[in-house]
Every structure is written in C-alpha cells, then in structure tokens.
Amino acid sequence: MVSLPDVQTSNAEIANTLPAGLVAVFVGATNGIGEAALKEFARSARSPRAYFIGRSQEAAARITAECRQLNPEGEFIFIKADVSLIRNVDVVCRELQIKEKSINILFLSCGTIRSGEDTSEGLHILPALGYYARTRFITNLLPNLKQATGLRRVVSVLAGSHEGPIDVTDFQAKKMSIIKLRGHLVSMTDMALETLAEQAPEVTFINDYPGPVKTGLGREANTFLAWFMGIVLMIIGPLIYIPIRESGERHLFFATSAKYPPRARLEAGEASSGVPLSEGVEVASGTDGKVGSGVYSIHWSGEHAGPKVVTLLAGLREQGIAQKVWHHTVGEFDRIVGSADV
C-alpha cells in the first residue's frame, strides 16, 4: 500500500518537479471524486490550466471560485455538457482541441449507477458513461496527450482490480445483472486501454478502483440493488468511507507519480516520467504483470490488482477478446457519428 504520507509527500513535490502550466481535463468533476481531484490539482500545480466538464452550472461556479482561491495563478474553465451522448463528447473535444495543442492529464470520472435504460443514441446508460464516453474522450484527445511534454497520463476512475469475464454477446451489458456488469466493464476498459497504449506508448493509462467514497452518485439509483446498496452504505459508510480529501490526494498521485510510467519509458530504458518516487515506493506492475509496462489496474491503495487479474486478462487476450472489444467499440462510434474523425 502507498501510505497517505507518501502520497502527500509526492503531491507536495509537483510544483518543484513538474513544469508550470500543466494542462488537465477533468470529465465529471462537478461532484465527488472528480471535484476532489481537480481541487488537489489546483492546490498542488504551478500555474495550471484545468478544464472540467459536467452538467451543473451552479456547481461549476462554486468549484471555479474555490479553485481560484486555492491557486490564484491557475486557470479553471468549465464546459457544460451531458457526456452520456457520444455526439456531445465530440463537441467538447473539438472545443478543447481549438484551445489546446497538448494535454498532460485526462481524468475521467463521469458515471452513473442508473441501469436498464438507453440513451437517445442507443447505448445502455451505465456503460455509456462508464466505458463508451470515456473511451471516446481518450481516442479523440490522444493526439493532444502525445503532443504533451513530460507528463502524459490518462486516469479512468472505475473499478480497477475488480475485473471479471467479458460477455461478447452482450458488450453493452443490457441483459446481465449489475453484479456481473462491473467486472465486465472493468475488463473491457483494460482491453481498450491496452489497445490505445499500442497507439501511444508514451502515454500512461490507469484504471483505478477508488474504494468506498461518499459521493452524490447514489441519488441516481433506479434499481432495487443500487437502492439497497445505498441504504447499506448509509448505515456502515461512516465506518468504511475513505475521506473525500484523501481520495482527491490519491487520485492526484495516480495522475502525477513516477510510480506509473508509460510503456515507452520501459522500452527505452529511460527514467520514469512524473514526480520522482520517495524511498520505499516502487514502480507498479502493469496489467500484463510486467513492471512499468504502461497500463495499470490499481486498487485505491495505489497497488497493482494482483496475479488473479493478470491471469484473467491474459486469458482474455489469448481468446482474442481485446480485438473483439475494440472492433465493437469502434463499430458503436461509427454507428452513432459516422467514421469521420473529430
């Protein structure tokens, strides 16, 4: 486990070890983990420029004011959008690409626990936000991430370390239970990130499990299981919740620490990108089980998912599931917006 003091020590070095003017994009940051991570970024970076995307203009005004108090030299720009729709994702990406040539951090925490209903584009709402929109953001903004100097990182807050089988007959998880859905989507995310890492080995990709954090997600529950889980957490939550400030600190660590280098650094034998590691903190193993291999499935503690996940993912690769996942994903994007680039 990466201790909280080690996380805080690393974050305190961001201003000294990373360049001024880092550009970050936070998708789903008007509440919960995304908001907490954005505020820690504002608190820690030198003259940063952060774009954050969400649906609430009211929340955005409050968050912008708070970030400016934390860092008067930073820029904090809100973009209002419902990113459950792929067409809206493309609009946001075009706006970002007009304003920025390079992006250092893409932080994705948009999500819902609503299930059993489709968006107007025909995507199951839960994976529309948890998988398809996120993958579209990464695909669209990958050229900008590759253009960045030094730090180039994607963090998807989902449920890394909780992988499960992928049902290739139900990629959208319209028929499976919400219990099976999580492992299915987490493994799909790993497969997609590995595919994208082949296109951009200079970029780090992280799929993390945030642990039990009190956010506003439960207010969107529309199934009995989600409602029941919300009631249970109301009772036991105070005993197990990770404080929201600590969650923000840990996610900033994921986004900036040299513990998670890109694959290109390993292949070139170069020093890791990110804030240098403090004593006792080691480079993480990737989804393939190799140290520093560029794609990471990590627990809230910052450590690798473990050998069972490595074995599971290896089996999926051997079955050609990664290619099937990517073929399906691109097919859905083409169905919704056509094959033209952003």
TrEMBL record:
<dbReference type="InterPro" id="IPR036291">
    <property type="entry name" value="NAD(P)-bd_dom_sf"/>
</dbReference>
<protein>
    <submittedName>
        <fullName>Short-chain dehydrogenase/reductase SDR</fullName>
    </submittedName>
</protein>
<feature type="transmembrane region" description="Helical">
    <location>
        <begin position="224"/>
        <end position="244"/>
    </location>
</feature>
<keyword id="KW-0560">Oxidoreductase</keyword>
<keyword id="KW-0472">Membrane</keyword>
<dbReference type="InterPro" id="IPR052228">
    <property type="entry name" value="Sec_Metab_Biosynth_Oxidored"/>
</dbReference>
<dbReference type="Pfam" id="PF00106">
    <property type="entry name" value="adh_short"/>
</dbReference>
<keyword id="KW-0812">Transmembrane</keyword>
<dbReference type="InterPro" id="IPR002347">
    <property type="entry name" value="SDR_fam"/>
</dbReference>
<keyword id="KW-1133">Transmembrane helix</keyword>
<dbReference type="GO" id="GO:0016491">
    <property type="term" value="F:oxidoreductase activity"/>
</dbReference>
